[in-house]
Amino acid sequence: MQNLDDFIGSQLIYTYDNGWEYEIYIKNEDTIDYRIHSGMVGGRWVRDQKVDLVKLVDGVFKVSWTEPTGTDVSLSYMPNIKKMHGIIFFPKWVHDHPEITVCYQNDFIDLMLESREKYDTYPKYVVPEFAEITYIGHPGVNNEKVVSQAPYEGMTDDIRSGKLKFD
Question: Catalytic one among 14, 16, 21, 22?
């Protein structure tokens, strides 16, 4: 992958050095879907998150966004060497009450916004981590089947093995 056109429409699974496993689908030039398979907010999944997506240099792409929770995320992908570096800025309330966010966020936007107002935002819980990309697929642009169900135990293995298909 060299250019944005190569990256857009990709699905990646990666494991941070701290053991958290995430999945992202680069749905189009300004939208992602994702699932969190393990970690502090494992079980969370989101569709149609608007992002800023740029190519930094050939083969290196940055995806950044702010979630309705108030969490800020910036991820730099290097798919050609199967590496990623991410930094997540969790608001204090997400760190203190992660269970509130473990859901299909799209159905609970009002709860996320209400929780931002109800609980403390600062200090932020900052998680800077490298990750190994363990899967790269290319289900194409705007494929609504890719992230269409909640994460389940063994899902990433099913994706990597081809048992779970998106066509």
Answer: 22
